[in-house]
Design a protein that fits this description.
With 412 residues, this protein is α/β, with parallel strands linked by helices. Helices cover 28% and strands 28% of the residues.
């Protein structure tokens, strides 16, 4: 087929039109304090098994979610666990995860050594016989800035980690099992891929027709180690899908987009905070320079446009030292101006001996809760669970927060 110059002009114009539409779907949101989120070099840890030949002790980072940058003998009963971040600048909270074992069973000491300016944050978790538990506090020793732990080693590799590991495979197993026999109203989509090609999944949840529905967005795992927030997200989503009278009424009126792993590369690479582009993705909700955020924004925006919907609420699940809700102060004139007050009042009324810890403040840096507010005039909350909050309490909080959200939104 002969291609004329007119056809070439038409093709070029069509391409430009498509490009223009693409740019429109990812409209930037302005923040008071911009952050440079262009990709930065990361330092990949070398995957290997370390051997201390003189004492027959071994350590390995050859699994997803591991973080171990060096391992050396200090004396016959102690080894240095050397931990460094994926790149800098970064938060000071060092993440670690490794397996250790020995030829001859014995108690052994591991001294954590971090690069300058970084500190020991996470209380060690142990995986024994496929069960996670916290280390006994009597086996943790702090001397100044140094932290040492005592472990009983034997021939079976023991996993020692800053937090329970929930790799991208673990997350996939969870949501795959969750939506079994619920596929008619919990639709799984892979809407994109990460910088290194890992899947970006979303659960699209509603009953009936999707058109003209208000939309709620749930996010988690922007920061890899923050698994307690992810656990709350799990219970929150499970409650929405529990087929109760409340859930059915809610899903017949609203639509939920739940994103269970926003940073799969960082999770599987054992990063402290960043993605494979060396960036904190929760600072990229303005220019969308990282593929994970860019594709998430595109998917949400296209969904809103295609189904004539409005985004009214966004919850981003994280972890920190203690339970806290970060909220926006601007509420008057937004989609749900009274939701925060009503929600928190309901939580305190329905959780025994519970006081909501709220820190209001309008987002200056380009974080998700600011994007919900400035980009969609929607209510946005950063939903934080403490690193050491007990699992039963996380379940209760995740369940009750979902129940009370649904009750408020359906007017029950």
């Amino acid at each position: 087929m002969k291609i004329t110059k007119y056809k070439i002009v038409y093709i070029v114009l069509a391409f430009c039109f498509i490009l223009l539409l693409s740019c429109q779907t990812t409209k930037k949101v302005t923040f008071e304090t911009p952050v440079d989120t262009t990709s930065k070099k990361i330092n990949y840890q070398v995957k290997q098994t370390y051997t201390l030949k003189d004492i027959n002790v071994y350590a390995s980072n050859e699994f997803n979610g591991a973080r171990l940058n060096g391992f050396r003998q200090i004396n016959d009963s102690t080894a240095a666990v050397i931990i460094s971040p994926e790149n800098t600048p970064i938060n000071e909270s060092a993440y670690y995860a490794f397996k250790a074992w020995t030829d001859t069973p014995k108690p052994f000491y591991f001294q954590f050594q971090y690069t300058e300016g970084h500190k020991h944050r996470y209380f060690p978790q142990l995986k024994i016989n496929d069960q996670w538990r916290s280390i006994d506090s009597t086996d943790v020793y702090k001397t100044g800035e140094s932290t040492t732990i005592k472990i009983k080693l034997d021939k079976t590799p023991l996993l020692i980690a800053a937090q329970e590991i929930q790799s991208s495979d673990d997350v996939k197993n969870w949501y795959t099992e969750l939506i079994k026999q619920k596929e008619s109203y919990a639709n799984l989509s892979i809407f994109g891929t990460s910088k290194l090609g890992r899947n970006l999944p979303v659960l699209d949840i509603y009953k009936g027709k999707p058109e003209n529905r208000d939309l709620i967005v749930l996010l988690t795992r922007q920061h890899p180690p923050e698994v307690t927030g992810y656990f709350a997200f799990q219970h929150f989503v499970q409650t929405i899908l529990n087929n109760s009278e409340l859930s059915n009424k809610f899903l017949n009126r609203y639509r939920v987009l739940a994103f269970p792993i926003m940073n799969p590369d960082g999770v599987d690479l054992g990063h402290w905070r960043h993605n494979a582009g060396g960036v904190d993705t929760n600072r990229d909700w303005s220019s969308y320079r990282q593929p994970e955020i860019r594709q998430t924004v595109q998917f949400i925006t296209e969904t809103l446009k295609r189904y004539n919907s409005k985004l009214i609420l966004g919850l981003d699940f994280h972890s920190t030292w203690y339970d806290i809700f970060y909220t926006n102060q601007i509420r008057k004139g937004t989609t749900l101006p009274y939701f925060i007050e009503d929600w928190f009042t309901a939580l305190e009324s329905n959780i025994s001996d519970y006081t909501v810890n709220e820190k209001p403040g309008n987002s200056k840096k380009p974080v998700s809760k600011g994007w919900f507010l400035y980009g969609h005039n929607a209510t946005g909350v950063t939903y934080e669970i403490g690193d050491d909050t007990p699992r039963d309490k996380i379940k209760m909080i995740g369940t009750v927060t979902a129940e009370q959200m649904m009750k408020i939104l359906v007017g029950k």
